[in-house]
Design a protein that fits this description.
Length: about 300
Amino acid sequence: MSGFPDRRQDIRAAIPDLRGTLTANAPAAPLSWFRTGGPAQLLFEPADEADLALFLANRPPDLPLTVIGRGSNLLIRDGGLPGVLIRLGRGFAQIAVEDGHRVRAGTGAADVKVARIAAEAGIDGLTFLRGIPGAIGGALRMNGGAYGGEVKDVLVEVRALDNMGAVHVLDNAAMGFAYRHSAVAVDMIFTQALFQGYPGDPQALLARMQEITEARSSTQPVNTRTGGSTFRNPPGMKAWELIDAAGCRGLQIGDAQVSPMHCNFLINHGHATAADIEALGEDVRRKVHETSGVELIWEIRRIGLPG
């Protein structure tokens, strides 16, 4: 692909006070843990919430928007992303301990860092975040959970911007949480979350986090190019067991492979395309359906155009 039209001049002219960075035809592969995918027509990295609100209120309306954080549970397709890819990075990574055993975190903050800061402050209830790769924004959108906890168990409220840049504060009930799902409209961009914990012993909490770290390392391919859990667990079942029973453990297309260690993880061994990874996932879904009648649902978010 030769690239998308460069619209930076249009945006700078329309929004001269914009403080964030704009990059045309930005390589998007480095932004996801799979390390695959074509370019983003425009990559916008806002300086902070106010900068993002300014952009949303004044952006060219013909450019579609896609929002990502740390890219852990994401597959960017090989044809790239038309429109604007908004990446919530350093300006959304603040974490603060508040009175009443609460933690406030920007949605670009790493889940593991939130868990650690809470533990060091003697705040229990958030250690499960150590088991979730990625950032708080993704955990909110998917009601992330691991090791006995879920976001819905600890969330007080979320700050979000609508597609015109207006600020909304959503309480736990307004999030519409279900298993690996939030019912909030996809065009709402989460910017900050407030979590409620309870008193705990810092040393015990840090030890629990270490146990989670060791458990993940011994059961999941954590040091590989992977997107985390590929498919949601069907009700009363485990996706990995269905995949294993269908004979898919170690299945491979090019450099894309079903992890031999944990077969609900797909791995890029270095040269897999997004098409390879997605085709492998679809092959797994077909085989599972043939053997068990169960229709697996993708947990990994797939965005962009086919190559």
